[in-house]
Design goal:
The structure is a single chain. This protein has 11 helices and 8 strands. Helix 2 packs across helix 6 and helix 2 crosses helix 7. By secondary structure, the chain is of the alpha/beta class.
Length: 329
């Protein structure tokens, strides 16, 4: 039934997660730009202070950007690496962004998620890069994910989407707060207070999700890609993803057929598309099964299509969507 199915239209940022020739060439250009900039100005040294005493902090993608902004407040100048509306899995850095990283006091990133960021951080002075994958506790791998997709990711690859589990996100927030305090001890008390406030909001969010998703009649959530493994594990759901950990991993026709069978056998009534990825595959499945399509946002970026202006608002919208789609009391 999927023999004539068209492929998902490529996204504007469409790249695989591997570093191809274009990425290598771009990195070479970027590093050349860094060298030229460093030769022409003394402001390119790591940890250069900004007007008002702010420190520059690179943030690899939106959830890390949000955390740094909330914790750092007026004491930090945030350098976001993933633009709004761009798919973070596919990020390629511009030469200007690489120059900015060489001027940063700290770069907050998740190793293994964005190869271009990993490569750029490797060029920085020791101690500038702050990898959150440790406090994120990335226990799920491609092989662990409960999914019908046959192309879920490279064997053993870690699921990076920790921020969709408020408890894991809170642990990362705590670690970022401590790192900013260590890099800028003069403002440590402010970072500590802001960290406590954000962790409190995430704790309340976890309480809302636990209560809101308790006793749902339908336990299987069919998602655009395997971004909701940690959320599903935390709240007693089972993720069935159309694509793998990376949205570029397109499933085979047989995998699509298995998803359709799962939906019919488990009486799933809702399948979930995303904001930054073409809904073509999800729409195909919905057409085959009669399920409705709703948007469940993996919060990899905030755009005008997002159901809120920040992480907390979009997570509350996700909760409302899941409660309706999973028929929760």
């Amino acid at each position: 039934m999927f023999a004539h199915r068209s492929r998902v239209p490529p996204r504007s940022a469409g790249r695989s997660r591997g570093a191809g020739p274009a990425a290598v060439a771009l990195t070479a250009v970027a590093l050349t730009a860094v060298a030229l900039t460093a030769a022409c100005t003394t402001a390119a040294s790591n940890g250069a202070s900004r007007p008002g005493g702010q420190i520059s902090v690179g943030a690899a993608f939106y959830p890390l950007e949000y955390a740094v902004e909330q914790i750092g407040g007026d004491h930090v100048h945030v350098l976001p690496l993933t633009k709004p509306g761009a798919e973070p899995h596919d990020l390629e850095l511009t030469p200007q962004q690489v120059v900015g990283l060489h001027q940063a006091t700290v770069v907050v990133y998740e190793r293994g998620f964005q190869p271009a960021v990993d490569s750029a951080v490797d060029q920085l002075d020791k101690g500038v890069g702050f990898d959150v994958s440790g406090p994120a506790d990335l226990t799920l791998t491609a092989a662990d994910e409960e999914t019908s997709s046959a192309t879920n990711g490279a064997p053993g690859s870690k699921d990076p989407h920790f921020w969709l589990d408020p408890k894991r996100y809170a642990a990362v927030v705590t670690a970022i707060g401590a790192e900013l305090a260590a890099k800028d001890p003069a403002n440590a008390s402010t970072y500590a207070a802001n960290t406590t406030a954000l962790v409190g909001k995430l704790t309340a969010l976890d309480t809302d999700f636990a209560a809101g998703l308790k006793g749902c009649r339908l336990k299987d959530i069919v998602t655009g890609h395997a971004a909701f493994g940690y959320l599903s594990q935390r709240y007693g759901l089972t993720q069935v993803s159309v694509s793998g950990i990376s949205p570029d991993a397109e499933p085979t026709a047989s995998a699509m057929a298995r998803i359709v069978t799962t939906i019919k056998d488990h009486h799933v009534t809702t399948v979930y598309a995303e904001t930054l990825v073409s809904p073509a595959l999800v729409d195909t499945i919905a057409h085959e099964t009669g399920a409705q399509v709703k948007v469940l946002d993996p919060i990899e970026g905030i755009t005008s299509a997002s159901a809120g202006t920040d992480y907390l608002q979009v997570m509350q919208a996700n909760l409302a969507t899941l409660r309706a789609g999973q028929q929760c009391p």
